[in-house]
Amino acid sequence: MALPIPKISEFRWLKLSPPQILVIGFALIIMIGALLLMLPVSHTQGQGISFLDAVFTATSAVCVTGLVVHDTGTFFSVFGQVVIMVLIQIGGLGFMTMATLFALVFRRRISLRERLVLQEAMNQSSMEGIVRLIRSVLIYSLVIEGGAAILLTIRWAFDMPFGRAMFFGLFHAVSMFNNAGFDLFGNYRSLTGYTSDPVVNVVVMFLIVSGGIGFIVMSDLIGYRRGRRLSLHTKVVLTSTAALIGIGALVLFVFEFTNTRTLGSLNFGGKVWGALFQSVTPRTAGANTLDLTGLRQASQFFIIILMFIGASPGSTGGGIKTTTFTIMLGAVIAMLRGRDDIVLFRYRLSQERVFKALTITVLALLLIGTVTMLLSTTEEMPFLDLLFETTSAFATVGLSLGVTPELSGAGKVLIALTMFAGRLGVLTLAYALGPKQGKPLYRYPEGKMIIG
Known about the structure:
The chain has 452 residues and is mainly alpha-helical. The chain has one domain (16-429). The protein has helices at residues 18-37, 51-62, 72-75, 78-93, 95-105, 112-121, 130-156, 162-177, 198-212, 215-222, 224-227, 232-256, 268-280, 297-309, 322-336, 351-378, 383-394, 409-424, 426-433; strands at residues 343-344, 347-348. The chain has a two-stranded antiparallel sheet. The N and C termini lie far apart (70 Å). It comes from Paenibacillus stellifer.
């Protein structure tokens, strides 16, 4: 006899808000994952892992980051790698999305409270069509990951036994679509062995971009043939993503063109692939085809900026999001032109959206600045390297300059907490710690002060 699946609404005595449920849910999954990774069967023979390192690895997987203290390809066994892959899938799609999958399979009704949590998890402004969106998310994810896994398997079957190529194809399809950045090639190499490989570059970049633009945009694009219209959100996401990738590739191509440690040693085609991939991966993917430690400092700092912006809302990626960056940029342009409204694609944005974008940006800067300063006191490493690692953790990117494996215990805790905050979102975490209050019934008189 099948056991009934409990509903979130049956735990009303907990009196938890949707943001608090998300925080607790992610924390529980991380702890379960850490315990599984501590099992002897999760490591290669003769190796063990401390509780802190297990929690760090589980946090990195669930928060789809990719920063690692132990090399995934050599330290963990196949069982451990499968655990990491499952944690990535749950973390990328969201545990509430996975819970909804089981509810749909068992034909259980989704309660109002569960819909509220799904609305918070998917960063939606209303509950309308939320279950339909979740169903689409699951279908899109499985189709894209499955197709990419087949293509990568075929490509890597030329380099390794077919069974191993199948596992590599599946693992990297899940990892890259969820913008996690974990890889199995060993010795922290990531995809540096395929810098000029067109198949690996195209498939992986497609996975990164499709996972990073968000499920709402994918749904809008698929339904475009019916309505011949795209929402403002989709237009902003596609435009900003294309602009960031194009500008990023051009800047990195110019900065690294003569650098023999990166693009300088490649032919023209390799230079183009290398610059383009390194521009795409700060969308919070974490894979790299160039040695990041060999990049010039200007390139490293530029990648920090790209990582800070990150992916788009409702996606598997992190960062302040492309829409937030676009709104902030629009506010600057509107101010310089002496206009009161921010207008994008002939739509005026409400003041609430501008305040939310400003709040997210300021909180993100405060978090990154604070963690970087703390790491500067606990770790004896260059400041730019620590800033790079902290931004990578906050934006759930996973790109690294080799700092993470050398972190002290305190440093690992700081980076793990930063990954956790970055995956949930600074606003969601703030609401979970101190739920937002209702609107006041009165307004204070307007005051004037000098700015600038």
